[in-house]
Specification:
The chain is of the alpha+beta class. The protein is built from 17 helices and 21 strands. It has helices at residues 20-39, 64-70, 76-91, 96-115, 120-141, 150-161, 170-184, 261-284, 298-306, 317-327, 380-403, 412-428, 432-443, 445-453, 458-470, 488-491, 497-515; strands at residues 16-19, 49-52, 58-61, 143-144, 186-188, 191-193, 199-205, 213-215, 218-220, 232-241, 289-292, 310-312, 331-332, 344-354, 357-363, 371-377, 405-408, 476-479, 484-487, 494-496, 519-522.
């Protein structure tokens, strides 16, 4: 104590602070609000959102992560919910809306328990137990599947694409996604390994969705480097070069003084000879197609064209890697060392105008480990939605095969797991069982939402579905099209186990994190530092 009774300022005067119940209520309200915004987009009858940006750009979608990314969210707890959608998208590519809706419902139920005087630590502990048990139950309910089960994989792709606005062409798109997965899948230690990045999905406005095409090879969004080069090469021998086909400049500052015109001509001739040699090296390797990651000098382009070699320059590194996987070519760093062994093969390489852009197609690769899908559509919005649908289908199949397991959709899995969780809660006892029961009730928000989107009495359908599960019919869920409880196995409504497990895990984690916050300190606006009270100007 300094005896002056002067207040001690720990935070700036314009800083805001919420403590205890006020902080928790603010966080829960914000999180529930953001989840309610996207809840109506869930399922095949989900509604779309029109998002108008500050510049007037319009996005119409029912994709959860797209909606949340486009919204200008201010509240920190709501931003944490958005992170759940991003994590879900990065990990498995689908189930973003499910994860956000579950997170909001878990917090809403937790708010009710807090009102009853249950401590947040007890709620968090109960939620953790329930999350672990739910993951176990999901795997128990899961049905085995393999790469050869084409029909089951197609139903997974169709379920993933449902509600994306491309209903008339989803059968064709589903078949394309399965073919693409079959090209890139390989076995490692008895497991099917799939890297979705090996499927390049390009979108180009024009035509219709029916014009969407699977390329047994790679599409490069570039033009051929020189107008005199061939526009089409059959039985292509492909060289991949990640060095510039140019005369290298010196690494240190250097000045060349030439006073004699003959020396000037000799210097120019020598440079021309070096460039010609680069083109000769490519020709001598047997290559008739060149993809270069860096630049190609104009003179090199001329010599390549003169020798009937098709060349494309400034290719992205990711495209170079895909070209290597598709054609079997090795990426070469030194042109002088290129040989026939480094070349890849393709049945056809050609330039084609798609919409307003020219693109180079590498087709008919023998055993491609990377392929391309080019999405077409009449408008920009249609193409965007079709691409999101294809992304979801590809990632859905990849996630299914990763665990070799799928579950029944339409809310069937949530109803079945919720029933088992309630039985499990009674064996736990104590206040934790209240949190586990709240977790079980939160899971049922999915079938409840599906029933609401069908325009039916959600409670009536949920009770009917529960009674079906009581008699052992675990595959029964909500038939949104007809507004009744139905057999999801018969309807072919299936989802990857991994996507659902990830959604529940992500939702539970963010709910626990928000529940553990008991203090919100918001910094004030930055301003010039003020002198401490009581201080005077020194002289």
């Amino acid at each position: 104590m300094n005896g002056t009774n002067q207040p001690i300022l720990v935070l700036p005067e314009d800083a805001l602070r919420q403590k205890g119940n006020d902080a928790q209520r603010a966080n829960i309200t914000a999180a529930v609000e953001i989840s309610e915004m996207v809840r109506s987009t869930l399922g095949p009858r989900g509604m779309d959102k029109m998002l108008v940006g500050s510049t007037g750009d319009i996005t119409i979608t029912n994709d959860g992560v797209t909606i949340l990314n486009e919204m200008e969210i201010q509240h920190p707890a709501a931003k944490m919910i958005r992170e759940v959608a991003k994590t879900q998208e990065q990990e498995v590519g689908d189930g973003t809306t499910t994860a956000v809706v579950l997170a909001g419902q878990l917090l809403k139920k937790a708010g009710g328990l807090l009102d009853q005087g249950i401590h947040r630590t007890t709620i968090v502990k109960g939620y953790r137990v329930a999350t672990t048990k739910t993951a176990e139950l999901m795997k128990e309910f899961g049905q085995k599947i393999s790469l050869s089960d084409t029909q089951e994989l197609k139903t997974i792709a169709l379920t993933a694409m449902t509600g994306k606005g491309i209903e008339s062409s989803k059968d064709e798109l589903a078949e394309i996604s399965i073919k693409a997965i079959n090209y890139i899948a390989h076995q490692e230690e008895g497991k099917t390994v799939i890297n979705p990045d090996d499927i390049q999905i390009e979108k180009k406005q024009g035509g219709s969705i029916a014009d969407t095409e699977l390329i047994k090879g790679i599409v490069v969004d570039k033009e051929i480097a020189h107008s005199a080069m061939p526009k089409e090469v059959k039985n292509a021998k492909i060289a991949l070069i990640n060095a510039a086909l140019e005369v290298k400049s010196t690494e240190t500052d250097a000045k060349i003084s030439i006073s004699d015109p003959e020396k000037m001509q000799a210097f120019a001739d020598q440079e021309s000879k070096m460039l010609k040699n680069l083109a000769e090296k490519v020709k001598d390797s047997g290559a008739n197609v060149v993809f270069c990651q860096k630049g190609i000098d104009d003179l090199v382009q001329y010599y390549l064209a003169k020798n009937g070699i098709l060349a494309v320059r400034r290719i992205k590194e990711s495209d170079m890697e895909k070209l290597s996987k598709a054609t079997g070519a090795r990426i070469v760093s030194n042109v002088k060392e290129i040989s026939e062994d480094d070349l890849g093969e393709a049945g056809l390489v050609h330039e084609k105008k798609i919409g307003e852009d020219k693109m180079v197609f590498v087709r008919e690769c023998k055993e491609p480990k990377a392929v391309s899908i080019i999405i077409r559509g009449g408008t920009e919005h249609v193409v965007d939605e079709a691409k999101r649908a294809m992304d979801d289908a590809v990632l859905g199949i990849a996630s299914t095969l990763e665990l070799s397991s799928f579950i029944y959709g339409g809310g069937a899995i949530e109803i079945g797991v919720a029933k088992k969780l309630r039985d499990y809660a009674s064996s736990i006892g104590g206040k934790e069982q209240l949190a586990i029961n709240a977790f079980a009730e939160s899971l049922e928000i999915i079938p409840r939402t599906l029933a609401e989107s069908a325009g039916k009495d959600a409670i009536e359908l949920l009770v009917t579905a529960r009674s079906r599960h009581e008699t052992g019919n675990n595959e029964y869920g909500i038939n949104v099209s007809e507004g009744k409880v139905d057999d999801m196995e018969k309807l072919g409504v299936v989802e990857p186990t991994k996507i659902k497990v990830q959604a529940i895990s992500s939702a539970a984690e963010v709910a626990e994190m928000i529940l553990r916050i008991d203090d919100i300190i918001t910094a004030g606006k930055s301003s010039a530092p003020t002198p401490p009270p009581g201080g005077g100007m020194g002289y």
